[in-house]
# Entry
Amino acid sequence: MRKTNKALLAKVLFLCLLLPLSCEEILEEAEKEEAETDTGDTTSTGSGTSSTGTVGDDLVLTSNAKSPIGTNLGSYGGGTPEWIFIDAFLKASPWIPNFCSSDTSVNEDSNRWISSLNSGQCAATYIYNGMNGHYPKGEYVLLWEGDGSFSFERDTTFSHVKGASTTLKNGLNRATVQVNPSNNGIYMEITDLDTDYLRNFRLIMPGGICGTSKEALDFLSHCQTARGGSGSCNAGSTCYDFEDVYWDRYLNTVEEINKPKAMFHPIFAKRLKSYRGIRYMKWMSTHDTLLKEWDGRAVLSKAFYADDSEYNDDKTKTTRGIPYEAAIALSNLLNADFYITIPAQSSDEYNGEFAKLVKGQLNSNLKVYLEYSNEVWNFDYAVDRAYMLSQADARGISGGDTEFVPDGIKLARFYSERAVEIFSIWDTEFSASETKLVKILAGFVDIPYTNEILTWKDAHSKVDALSPTGYFTGEIGFSSNESTVLAWAQADNLDAFFNELNNGGLGSEGGLDEIKRNYIANYNLANPLGLRMIAYEGGFGIEAFKFSSAAIQPVTDFNKKGQLDPRMGAATVANFNNWKDAGGDEFFHFNNSDSAMTYGSLEYQTQAADDAPKYKSIMTYIKDTVCWWDDCTISPN
# Structure
């Protein structure tokens, strides 16, 4: 009797559903591949322990030139699942000022470093908290400037007292800290400051990058060093410790990002390599921001890049999110198209400067997808919605309700009008550029609303594509069905969950058929107007916070089980095929990673592909499906 390991059998059973081969043929090929190739990778798991097993590198393409699928990146915070940067301090939460007293005031400099403390006050921050230990174990290098008393606790222990001597390296204070990951993460507390206050902290992760020299690095290849990390380099390459090659936001220029300094952790970057484009809406913290002028944006010299709304729900803060230069650098590194969403209240000046930045820094072979704001019809984004309705009134724009949106006609008209104005500013800046702009108007399942966006003042003649949503959640996420979905969750009834997606029951049709019908309706609006159809977001996810408090946790846990069920992989592929059959072009899945698995394809950054059916199905689909629309091939830089 043939003996095959369980992981291989799981892989075979999954591929039997996707590929036009017999299971016997697939099994023979898989066993042959297993015998010939070692695809293992050593990664940090649970409580910082190490294990050997694929994290999906074998599914990642070396080129995304003909990929049909893009992805959305999630918000960046102290406890979100993606590491992203080699400098871990960028993942620190905004300062918490009232752990030692009731004083909630914060005295910060322009880069948000604590410049002084009030009597009895301390300032604290968290890094990697709530990640279930899914971040690298090993020796981290701590660098800083200035003086004061501070300490690190929980997953590491370190303290420095103001006035104590330190080791210096290149003029910076330097220490090393041993980190053993757990769900607690790293806690930092500042208790005293010199007039030359503590600032410009860096926390360099363990591990390194392979390359033939420090000036010729393979930014997608990670390796183990004396400080930790994982992986090894091919013959002819050397492993360079992150400390020696990382991009320092206080010492290096923006031009040195990836040329030759490394900004992104190779494991994070490599798992994105198959995607044709990246949508940066969450990275940019576009939704509900009060950002109007260019000088209010997030800048590279910030103390941390974490989104404040992850901690205090201050969604209107203007300097939230990852700086635009970092997003551009990631697209350049991956040779992936650049999809951005423009803040609702942004001025003409802001858009002109943003256009100049992108034109000057983005590789000219890449497309720029432009979308004004994000889901302005969505009641979750009340600030953006209220702003647009007030601006509609100011312009004398009127209109009643649409199928699902109160004041939908008025909202659609202003959105469409302002979007075209913004696109015109970008067109002017890019008029002599090789870079192609893809100007998008975003609709959704409300067809009268979407039609108004396209037809108001002939907006369709000034754009390139209509972009509907691509979620196949069906009726499961409706609060009116809470009692039924909660009963499924309590009974662990995933069969009912997937029956709703495929066949219906809560509604007249399944989630997949329902969204396919919407794809067709949107195509019937777009195609006669000469517009392409691009999905700005799509996938599956239940936002359990919209249910009653008693249902939130059980439904959240139930949704996570559904996301990690192999049937979700098959449903994801079915949704892609329905999109293609309806006339759709590129599809930007939402989203890459999400620890609660509300939407994410990965629960954590190093999750094995065999444990992430949605991620595995997406990678397999990209590997097996060539983009099908005109001018879809991404040229090399």
Q: What stands out?
A: The longest helix spans residues 408-429.
